[in-house]
Specification:
Length: 161
């Protein structure tokens, strides 16, 4: 009886932990009026620059985001606000918003990437979570160290020579 209740409690904890850990998806693009949207577009494009939040966007995704932002800006410039749009245009605007928000959320530098790795000497995997920026910095540091080691090997001048 104790074992069955313990298994039930553990099952509930395992099922509820991913739900509690998942944070609400941030909506970056929200179109209301042409003026507000123009300011928002400029801020998003600045955040796509190197060293900023969305620097990890692939070139195809970057082009998709820019095209969708341009399309939404044109619609809002013609009508002035979302309320003045036709039903079809409003649907297109919402679809573009969702597409841009999804691409930006998947490529933000502060998103967590979790992996399960079994440590040496164990078969039980351990969960390890890091941000995309931390992973990119770790890769860059590893490449730099490998380049330094290979340069020292070619020159033949390591420490102590």
């Amino acid at each position: 009886m104790f074992r069955a209740s313990a298994l039930l409690i553990m099952g509930l904890i395992l099922v509820s932990s991913p739900l509690a850990a998942k944070k609400a998806e941030e909506k970056v693009v929200i179109a209301e009026t042409s003026e507000k949207f123009g300011v928002l577009v400029e801020a998003i494009r600045q955040e796509m620059a190197p060293g900023k939040r969305y620097e990890f966007l692939k070139s195809a995704d970057r082009a998709t985001v820019n095209q969708a932002l341009d399309r939404m800006a044109a619609m809002l410039a013609r009508s002035g606000s979302v309320d003045a749009l036709s039903r079809e245009e409003r649907t297109q605007l919402q679809n573009d918003q969702e597409k841009v928000n999804g691409l930006l959320a998947r490529n933000a530098d502060d998103r967590l990437i979790c992996t399960y790795v079994a440590p040496v000497g164990s078969h039980l995997p351990v969960k390890s979570c890091r941000t995309a920026r931390e992973i990119a910095q770790s890769r860059a540091n590893s490449r730099r160290q490998a380049d330094e080691i290979s340069t020292q090997g070619r020159i033949g001048g390591g420490p102590g020579n």
